[in-house]
């Protein structure tokens, strides 16, 4: 593939993910506010509503990986886009007037579960499809573009979601979230299928794959704690402190994330993922400490920016290492398992942080993120630096 075609393919990938992931980004800071302020339920249930979508993602990762590897990676991510749309419409029904809080919460949870399945199918399918089309030597770039588009969406999606919620209510956020995935479907509708890899060799079981990549998985899981607590509670934290610019905090996180991917996206392919992940975790941990201890909103905003800068490169850095460790015909399944570790952080961090907020304060949620970052640093430091050149990636 020529450099022009490669750049066009990566740009299309990034733009499509940016559009479709608005379904997730616009809803993320709004869901916990809706649960606590409109349904009048406790913070831990607000966190649970945020995190439950990732439970569905965890449970569906194996199926999504097998579907992409054995059937069709394109159909896998297209189905994911349709799940995004369905999830938003179900969540919108939770805002029906006259409904009891318990029923509304149950409907909301159902929609969030559908969203989790959609995210699993969309991300695993897109990764597998692009690995096959562009080749494993581009894995670092593919992962960087994917994450930059996904989390860069929060620079726009978070504030847009909060603004829509403030002026037009929860239903307007969900309606918008149901529309944007349609554009992604249109963009890839005529794209070619990719023939799945065939092999006569025995495949590793899903559990064996997890055993192979567990350290890389734990690194992204611990990184995900900081992002999860920031996304779920920074708005409530700023409101509780009487600080302005809660939406700016989400934007700064997204901006930091995108800047890091633009400047350092090629580094994992060049110098190895371990070095990149280690530095990134240090930066994220400093950001979480500033959010935890900030006496003024300006330091908290800097902490949000540093969290984004640090979070950004850990997933692609560890993903490049995973690519080197698995065969081509199991990349989709391996990445399903690899991403599952991050999903675990997203599923359980927000509810745990909600309990901390109920018992102590909103600032304690960022202490949780700080501790996770420290543990992540220890795990990554224990990894053996892989000195193979970047072109040694399995073909």
From TrEMBL:
GO terms for MF: transmembrane transporter activity
Protein name, as recorded: Predicted arabinose efflux permease, MFS family
CC per GO annotation: plasma membrane
Origin species: Propionispira arboris
Keyword Disulfide bond attached: no
Metal-binding is among the record's keywords: no
Pfam families: MFS_1
Positions of transmembrane segments: 12-35, 81-107, 143-162, 168-189, 218-238, 244-264, 300-323, 335-356, 362-380
Signal sequence interval, chain numbering: none
Record domain Major facilitator superfamily (MFS) profile: where: 177-395
Superkingdom of origin: Bacteria
Matches recorded under Gene3D superfamilies: MFS general substrate transporter like domains (1.20.1250.20)
